[in-house]
Design brief:
The chain has about 180 residues and is α+β, with helices and mostly antiparallel strands. It has one domain: Alpha-Beta Plaits, CATH 3.30.70.20. The protein contains five helices and nine strands, in the order E-H-E-E-H-E-E-H-E-E-H-E-H-E. It has a three-stranded antiparallel sheet, covered by helices on one side. Strands 2-3 form a two-stranded antiparallel ribbon. Strand 4 and strand 5 form a beta hairpin. The termini are close together.
């Protein structure tokens, strides 16, 4: 089975937050909680000009997810395709997964007293669709879903076409690995 991954090219992010909106609508996330977040840094003066930098934060769907080990109630599991799913119905609200996640990608719904995280829209993926945030929503074309190696190659080719702006595979590219390399 090919690995699934959500690859985010932060250098392409404009900060529009369309990914946040798409996720919130698709997953009916409670008010004030975001399963994917656009973090803003700036404005900062870079080579004499003011610039903003944006970083998209979401679950990394780790190869060895600490949240799965931390959950004593099996509310979080890693599927055969590598997608890490949190089933809120099984969650007891102990918050051990929040503490275990090194990426602060799990949030807590105080009203329902359960943890929530990006489940990579597995309900859509199972139907052959893309996750909501990667379904041609990103105006900067910075969110991609599929085989991480193939996506990184496509991003490198795009950067070459743009005159090599930025590193070929910049440190700003983050991705969710959902299968062992």
């Amino acid at each position: 089975m090919k690995p699934y991954g959500l690859v985010i090219d932060d250098k392409a992010c404009w900060g529009c937050k369309a990914c946040e909106v798409a996720c919130k609508q698709e997953n009916n996330a409670p008010d004030g909680l975001k399963l994917i977040k656009v973090l803003e840094d700036g404005p900062k003066r870079v080579t004499g000009r003011l610039q903003f930098q944006f970083k998209v934060q979401a679950c990394k769907h780790c190869a060895k997810p600490a949240c799965v080990k931390a959950c004593s109630f099996a509310a979080i599991s890693k599927r055969a395709d590598g997608i890490v799913v949190l089933e809120s119905a099984k969650c007891t609200g102990c918050r051990s997964c929040l503490e275990a996640c090194p990426y602060a990608a799990i949030v807590f719904d105080e009203t329902k007293e359960v943890a929530l995280k990006c489940n990579l829209c597995h309900h859509r993926v199972d139907q052959g669709l893309l996750p909501a945030c990667a379904d041609n929503i990103c105006l900067g074309h910075g969110i991609h879903f599929g085989d991480p190696a193939e996506i990184r190659q496509k991003i490198a080719e795009k950067r070459k076409l743009r005159g090599g702006r930025g590193e070929i595979i910049p440190k700003a590219i983050s991705y969710s690995r959902t299968a062992h390399p």
